Each structure stands twice: as structure tokens, then as C-alpha cells.
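Researcher: Structure for this, please.
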Amino acid sequence: MKKGEVRSANGRFRFRPRLLEIFNGRYGRAQLGNDVMAGVTVGMIALPLALALGIASVPAGVETPFPAPALGIFTAIIAGFIISTLGGSRVQIGGPTAAFIPIILLIIEKHGYGGLMMASIMAGVILIIMGLAKMGSLIKFIPWPVTSGFTTGIAVAIMATQAVGFLGIQSNNPAPSDFLERLHWLFYHLFDINVPTLLLATACLIVIIFWPRLGFRRVPGSIVAMFGATILVAVFGWQENLGIATIGSQFGSAAIPARLPQVSWPEFDWMMMRDLIGPATAIAILGAIESLLSAVVADGLTNDRHDSNTELVAQGVANIICPFFCGLPATGAIARTSANVNNGGRSPVSGIVHSLTLLGIVLLFAKWAAYVPMAAMSAVLVFVALRMGEWHEIKRLRLMPRSDAVVLLTTFMLTVIFDLVIAVEVGMVLAAILFIRRVSETTEVSQVLESDVLESPEQLMNGKKIPEGVLVYRIFGPFLFGAAEKMQDAIERVEVLPAVLILRLHLVTAMDATALNALESVIERFKKHGGTVILSGLHRQPLGMLRKAGFIQVIGRANLVAHFDDALTRAREILSADAS
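Model: Predicted structure, C-alpha cell format:
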């Protein structure tokens, strides 16, 4: 095996980090300068997001090795560096994302931060297995109603969690995690709103939304809002005078240490691992979907093509290593990746510089983080939620096919009212059912008539006489378990069974075990009445499946023919033998 390659059970998997491409002699000084500038810019963009995501992911009162803001920063630095170094995309920027917030809160609520560390490591292992098994391309086949449903549900859940900080409500009775109970709690505490906090959060949100429209695209609006709010709170003493909460007042003056954490080993609880299989799988699936979707978006912006399986392995390694450095689950971030491309980033060097930029900020300016108002952090996440929600799909529900609308609404409601684990599990089942239905709808079982002309000469029916006592059916499309019932129904509608049934399968590209079982039932039925079934035009996959199942001996080698002409010849031989 050559260096840089890993073999999997499904054949050869080549581990090809795109960072190696900078050593091919085409990477020049000009591109290095563009990548460095893009990396610094994205690092500035990632700073308020990392802080906000760390705060939003850890409920108040939960014991963690470092304050919540530090967890987000550590994740952005470590995961961002690993994903850029090992990933299969040139421009992917990795780190914590808003999509993980509901599932992280669920895990921490039930199992504490130690449970989150275990779940993240388990998710990393699952991602690596998915990459080695070459499942990167399969993630793309998850129906859009499923991803749209839980993406919009996550957006609503994030806004619900940030409502307390956005409104400045301070209460000895913390807000419950359940969505409906939280709505009731917010309604009960409407008179406890801190108006200055609400005004500051609204101003920050307005700045974030409208700043790019002023033409200052190089400097992100979230940075302007965060630094502006921090200066106002620090200079005018709004924390003491107006009761505006800051990171320092909530997490202490050393909310972000001016160093990276030491390695901390999680305590593995085998009983807890059993309970975390579902949440870990949800993290892995979400991470895979978001990272590969981000890579696809980046491909469109750069006219490049990412390696999805290498990307999954890199995501898995990042999620395994991050918990050892007090990190959170991580994946590719669409907004940061797009910003990287738009600012000139064209290689993984920009992603590495983004991580080093965040590290430099931590080492040099960590002490100033205590003055950042919580209202600004809430505004950043509310803006992220507004951007990530597929609100236009909600408006188009009446125009969608009914099945798609039901899937989207079901996934959305499960995500909001219950939790993301249930939504992902049910959503995947609904996706499978939707796929089965679509496949079965496209597969046709029809009787062949002499007027048919849509075939090659040897398969053509037009002008050829079907002998009396012979019935011909054609199956068009994948012959899978969703379509097997169609064939059985078509045969059962035949009142008098003929002496010979010809099943034309030259338009069948794939067959599964359920279809094979249905085919066997038809053959047994014909054998009981002294009839014969002939299969014509089998492709490689269906033929290989019949051979492996020992089905050729059941039907008889002579009854497997290459073309319809051969099938008619074989039918006449059977009829002649029966007559004699």
C-alpha cells in the first residue's frame, strides 16, 4: 500500500488532504499573500461566532474545565487547524456551528460536560468509519425536505435559547430547556425585561444586518457590533449603571485564558456510551451534512471539486481530538467558508491562518473579553439563526407535493418541540420512505404489445408475433422492494395463466432481495400450473444477484436469454414440446 492510502472493506480509499497540493510547484507568493489575508479576515469573523457558540452551548451552572466562551474559541482554533490540514476541500473552514447547539444542550443536560466529550469522540469515530466506507456521496441523497425541516427547526430553537440574553431577563429561576416550557417562562417574565439590554441587542442586530450594505465588506458586521458594544459598555459603565450583563459578569474576569488548554482525558463510562449512541450519531450525521454541503457550496464558488470521503475523515479526526482540549463538536461552516473564498482564500493555508489568527487573539487580547456584553453575543446568534433558517420553504409549503410538505413539517416540529436526536432519526426514516415511494413510482410494469417501437432491433416488439399461450410483461426502472408489489399485482390480475410468461428485464438497472423474492413467488405459481417463466435481457447486477442466490437453478439456465428474439424462440420451443 502506498503512503497516504488507506484500504477499506469496500475497496481502496485514498486519503488525500488537499494541503499537499501546495507542494506541487504551482503555489506562489501571490497566492500565499491572498491566503494569509483571507485567513486573518475569516479569523476576525470567527471570533464573535466562536464566543457566542461557546456561551450558547453550555447552560448556566454546568461545571466545565474552562468558562463557556473559551470552549468555543478552543474549538475554532483546534478543529479549524485539523480540518484545514487534513480535509478534502481546499477552502473549508471548520469550527463550532449553530446546528450543534440543540443536541449539545440535550447531552449536557442529561450527562454533563463529560457526556458531551464522549459523544463528540464517538461521533468522530462514526465520521471516520463513514469516510472509510466511502459514504461521503450518500449524504448528498438525503432529501431536501428533511434537511430543510431540521435546519429551520434548529434556527427556531437557537432563537428560543437566545431570547433570555437578547431580552436581558435575569431571574433566580433559570429558563427551562424544553421549548414549550421556555415559551411559557418567557411569557411569565415579560415584565423582567431589561430595556437597555434589549435596545443594545437590537442595535447590534441592526448593525450586523445592514453593515455589509454600507460597502464595508472586508470588516464583518459582527466584529463591528461586538467591538462597538464592548467599548460603549466599558467606557460608560453600562454594566453597573444599566445592569447590562457581560462575559466577565457571567463567567468571571478570566473567561478566556491567555493560553491553550492542556490535554484532559475524558472518563469513559461504558453504560453512558450506550445512552449516547443516538446523540453521537445525530452529531455525526449533522456534521457530515453541514460539512459536505459547505464543501459543495465552496466548489461552486471556486470551480473546484472536493474529496467528500477525505473530508469526512478529517471531520472525524477533529471531533476526536477537540474533546481532549476542552472543545465542542465541530464541522465545516458554510458562512465562514464562503467568506474565505470571497476574500481570496484558495488553499488550506487560509484555514490554517484563520486558526493562528484566533490563537493570536487569545494570547494577546483574552483579558478584554470580560467586557463583551452578552447582548452582543445573543445578537450574533440571532442573526446566524435568521440566516440559516429555510424560511422561504415554509412559504412554499402549499406549492410542494403533499408528501414533501409532510416530511418538512414533521422534521421541523420534532426538532423544535422535542429534540434533534428524534428529529434526525425520524427524518432519516421519512427520507427512506420517501425514496422508496419515489423509486416505486418511477418503476413501471406493463404488458408488451405488438405496436411497441421504443426499443433496439433485437428487443423490438413491433412486427413480431407473440405466440398464443405466451404473455409478455416489461419492467422499466429499478426493480426494488418498493416496486416488487407492482409486478405481483400485475400477474395476479391475469385471470387465466398462460403456458409461458416472458419477463423483459433489459430496462431494469438494479434488483434487490425483495424483488427476487417476488420473482420467485411468480415462478412457483407458474410451475404449479405447469407454466414456464422466461427472463430476457438481464443486466450485470440483477444477473449477478440471481447467480449468487442460486436462482438460476430454480428457473433453469435455458430460461435466461439475452434478447427478446431469443425469448420468443425459447417460448416456441416450450409450446412445441408441450404440444408433442
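Researcher: Any notable elements?
Model: The first helix runs from residue 29 to 57. The radius of gyration is 30 Å.
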